[in-house]
Amino acid sequence: MSQRSLTAGGWWLHAIVLALVIIAELIGIRKISIGIGTVVFLPILYAFAMGIALNPYIFKKMAALIPPKAVKLSGTMITIAIMPFIAKFGTTVGPQIEEIIKAGPALILQEIGNLGTIFIAFPIAVFLLRMGRESIGATYSIDREPNLAVIADKFGLNSPEGAGAMGVYATGTLIGTFVFAIMPPLIHGLGWFDMRALAMSCGVGSGSMLAACTGSLVSIMPEQKDVILALAAASNILTYATGLYVGLFVALPLTEWLYKKCRPQDAAAR
Amino acid sequence: MSLNTANTSSAEQSLPLHGEDERKIDVARYSVLLLIVSIIGLVSNWVGTGTDPLTALPGMAILYIVSVAGLFLARFVPFYLPSVAWISLLAIVVTIPGIPGAEWVVAKVEALNFLALATPALAYGGLALTKGEFDIARKSGWKIVIVAICVMLGTYLGSAVIAEIMLRVSG
């Protein structure tokens, strides 16, 4: 079974990926200066966009080359393809270990900053968009796989909370790379933040968001490449270690409590 | 696999909730797939940076070995850490100054551009999206898109603000 799924439709999948990668890398990094900062376009964005364009659920004829089984293999391949990238990222930490220890307190405490989603997204969901209990699942965390598992475990995915979490998960999957490539250089353009602060904030626990975030920062500050990569790598490892627990024991109870305060009737109705 | 309503069972099939159980992965199969990914990574690096695959090969071999070792640890160590965490830790350990060979490792992996290594993952990512994921995104509507952007902005800014304060306090 596993031997067959390695080859069944697999070779076409790998060949198409190879072609997309070559095209994306040929286009290369493009920077556009706009008034408030720089918008950075990265090869990962083109590769992802072309992948979606050729996705057999979008471009039906591709199903001949990429049957559902190969789509499933492609899902497995994401996990595998991100490994050498994560390994390369880790190797940037060792040489910068002194810089990282120096930034240690900031590195550790900024993990709590991931709760910032509750202070920005939660009020917008509840007060501006008048959303219901979906807000809890949608805004308690960045809703990547481990966070989604917490919601699935606690509420089930067919609950309102589950729908909110899945919506943000799916949207994040579709546009997260773009958002994390565009946002950091613009925030850097504000001039409020130390580049080390912007670098360590890139570690949100998603490989593609990490790549987009650090890629865009490095392309506007190439001379700081080593420090940016090392701090982002260290922060991302901390998020792997703490993200699930902060979500489960801090962020989710906090979001639920806030929701009860904001919508006493709804909470009582349950 | 038609998913009209996002009920629990079909949603779980289309979302990677259970694909993450690394206690059961087949390390041998993953090692073969990693080989394919490494070759694509070498080409990506070649086109992106101009470094030919032969020059980058030792560095790629190091990343491959670290990745496979991380898979092994995730699979067989009695307590659970995801393989990406093991891979990160191993990669850090082999590059800490003072560890035998650390300088050589750093010099060799220098030939590989980190962004070029991420490109294949994103290409697979675009092709891997399932009907379920498209449907959920479509069904959730514009409100969720706004909320999702605020979630990403909030997560990033929250961390940046705390990091900035801490860096200023500690100098």
Structural class of chain A: mainly alpha
The biggest sheet of chain B amounts to: none
Largest sheet of chain A: 2 strands, antiparallel
| Oligomeric grouping of the chains | heterodimer
Elements of chain B, N to C (H/E): HHHHHHH
State the helix count of chain A. 14
Mean pLDDT of chain A: 89
Which value, in Å, is the CA radius of gyration of chain B?
20 Å
Characterize the overall form of chain A.
Answer: globular
| Sheet with most strands: strand arrangement of chain A | 1-2
Protein name (chain B): DUF340 domain-containing protein
Organism (chain B): Paramesorhizobium deserti
Transmembrane segments (chain B): 27-48, 54-74, 79-99, 111-130, 142-167
Keywords (chain B): Membrane, Transmembrane, Transmembrane helix
Provide a compact summary of the structure.
Chain A has about 270 residues and is mostly helical.
Q: How would you portray this structure in words?
A:
The complex is a heterodimer of chains A (270) and B (171). Chain A folds into two domains: 1-82, no CATH class; 92-270, no CATH class. In chain A, a hairpin with a 2-residue loop joins strand 1 and strand 2. Helices cover 73% and strands 4% of the residues of chain A. Chain A is mainly alpha-helical. Chain A is globular and about 55 Å long. Chain A has helices at residues 2-7, 10-27, 43-54, 68-91, 97-102, 104-109, 116-128, 134-139, 145-155, 160-189, 195-200, 207-220, 225-262, 264-269, and strands at residues 30-34, 37-41. Chain A has a two-stranded antiparallel sheet. Chain B has 171 residues and is mostly helical. Chain B has two domains: 17-128, no CATH class; 130-171. In chain B, 75% of the residues lie in helices and 0% in strands. Chain B has helices at residues 8-14, 27-49, 53-76, 83-93, 102-109, 114-128, 131-170. Chain B is globular. Mean pLDDT of chain B is 85; it is low at 1-14. Chain B: It comes from Paramesorhizobium deserti. Chain B: This is DUF340 domain-containing protein.
